[in-house]
Amino acid sequence: MADDDFDVQGFARGINELLILSTLQEGAKHGYQIAIDVEEGSNGLFRFRHGTLYPILHRLEEAGHIRGSWSKEEGRRRKVYALTEKGERHLVGGSDRVDVILHRLLGMLRGPGEVLP
User: Fold this and answer.
1) Mean pLDDT of the chain
2) Which residue ranges form the domains of the chain, and what is each CATH number?
3) pTM to 2 decimals?
4) What does the chain look like in DSSP terms, one character per residue?
């Protein structure tokens, strides 16, 4: 990763996408369940608002990282999202990139000579 490739806002946007994709590794879910799983899985650190989550889901669907389908639960239609193979590859690659970025950040914050895990 070249130093000029890093975009902080893009990184934050990418984290949200990776959080969503990671919850879908367990199986297909509707948007509300994805939001709950992200919040619970991060002990409340990450939360999605309605206006934030659904545009990300649409973007991931358009990119082919997830596939949406309509189901009828409890008498109402809900869109359920599933992880695609392309989405799995994006999750792995994105996770590796986050690892590199956080490793470099911690190296800067801890200073020279500090051993990183």
Assistant:
1) 90
2) 9-110 (1.10.10.10)
3) 0.84
4) --GGG--HHHHHHHHHHHHHHHHGGG--EEHHHHHHHHHHHTTTSS---HHHHHHHHHHHHHTTSEEEEEEEETTEEEEEEEE-HHHHHHHHHHHHHHHHHHHHHHHHHH-TTPPP-
